Amino acid sequence: MSDFAFAPNPNCVTPDARAALLADPGFGRVFTDHMAMIRYADGKGWHDAKVVARGPIPMDPATAVLHYAQEIFEGMKAYRHPDGATALFRPFANAARFNRSATRLAMPELPEEMFVGSVEALLRADADWMPSIDGASIYLRPFMFASEVFLGVKPSAEYLYLVIASPSGNYWKGGARAISIWVSDQYTRAAPGGTGAAKCGGNYAASLPAMAEATAHGCDQVVFLDAVERRYVEELGGMNVFFAFDDGSIATPALSGTILEGITRDSLMMLARDEGLTVREEPYAIDQWRADAASGHLREAFACGTAAVVTSIGEVRSANGNFTIGAGGPGQLTERLKDRLVAIQRGTQADPHGWVHRIGPN
Ligand SMILES: *Cc1c(COP(=O)(O)O)cnc(C)c1O
User: Fold this and answer.
1) For 16, what's the count of Cα atoms within 13 Å in the CB-facing half-sphere?
2) Which residues of the chain are in CATH 3.20.10.10 domains?
3) What are the backbone dihedrals phi and psi of residue 288, each rounded to the nearest 5 degrees, phi first?
4) Alpha helix locations (H) across the chain?
5) Assuming Cys at both sites, which of 181, 251, 330, 349 could form a disulfide with 343, CB separation 3.0 to 4.6 Å?
6) Mean pLDDT across the chain, nearest whole number?
7) DSSP assignment of 140-160
């Protein structure tokens, strides 16, 4: 699937300006010259697939997404391998999840080949934007929104699907560290029957006050409890969570419909099982977490997702007091699993599960 029309940007960033941007791109602030775009209309289906100059998308003030938030997105990274090839990590898993999100928000599914093809077409157009600094990548953001101009509450009859690309620096510049997290007792992220398992913008909008509360308490991230009992750990605002115990086992909250099914989460479970570790998916209560941290039964905890890959959790703070995990710093098992996953993603170690998707010349 590479039948994307290509209209090259006549005003690309100059090579010198690009080099300056790529020297220290940070995250989510630098963008490439192009974007991929596909339109959808009821009766017509997906059409007009193209790669064009990145730029504003003119919008009528009555465009449905601005009112009822019918919007979903994905997040994935492309890496430069040692042989110079550009590679994606499990892009068909992102494509499948995109369609599950679409179904939950009453949006049309996009054929998986078209999803992956759009990302490949954009990466080919913007190949010069891969930063060469250590640990860098191009973060890709496919998204889709309701583009019909209509204020009635119903699924939109038209959608716009886009992919933009953002060169990113090394997330762990300055070495591994451990984050502190705030347990939200006021806000929940997702309720049974809701949209917690869908990657939609609305979930993030609703998580912002909890994130602000975390920041006000000096924490890096917020962790949410389940909406029914307010007891079981679910996940962070945009990352899944794992616990590592002194018996060599690891555990992560089970996918119950309220937790986002992370591809990093799934990959780490497989890598841990490859190592012979016991991996459990089960509910884990916040009081248990506190008790296990105090007794030493819990050795490490970590958060995971595409952006940061894997990050140790050193301290948990809440209205009921704070506790530290291990010595409060990066965990050994956490760092080992992270190194293993990063090495597969970046092509410096073998890829036993066939996760790496290399992008050919066209
Ligand atoms: C995207 C996301 C994750 C992590 O998913 P990955 O596929 O590992 O990047 C976890 N939680 C939420 C809420 C997310 O939106």
Assistant:
1) 0
2) 178-345
3) -65, -40
4) 15-23, 65-68, 91-104, 112-125, 201-216, 263-274, 286-295, 332-345
5) 349
6) 96
7) EEEEEEE--B--SSS--SEEE
- Residue nearest to ligand 1 atom 15, measured at CA: 238
**Rounded Cα gap, residues 27 and 139, in angstroms:** 8
pLDDT tens for residues 294-303?
999 999 999 9
Span(s) in the chain for CATH 3.30.470.10:
5-168
Coil, strand or helix: which one is 225?
strand
Quote the ligand 1 centre to 122 CA distance (angstroms).
22
pLDDT in tens, 236-246: 999 999 999 99
Query: Using an 8 Å Cβ cutoff, are 164 and 35 in contact?
Result: yes
For residue 2, pLDDT over 90 is answered with no
Closest CA to 358 of 72, 8, 89, 106: 89
Number of the ligand 1 atom closest to the C-alpha atom of 264: 8
Q: Which fold has domain 5-168?
A: D-amino Acid Aminotransferase; Chain A, domain 1 (3.30.470)
In short, whether 199's Cβ falls inside 6 Å of ligand 1 is: yes
pLDDT over 70 percentage in the chain? 99
Q: What is the pLDDT of residues 55-86, one digit of tens each?
A: 999 999 999 999 999 999 999 999 999 999 99
pTM: 0.97
* pLDDT above 90 as % of the chain: 94
Question: Ligand 1: does its nearest atom lie under 6 Å from the Cβ of 262?
Answer: yes
Fold for domain 178-345?
D-amino Acid Aminotransferase; Chain A, domain 2 (3.20.10)
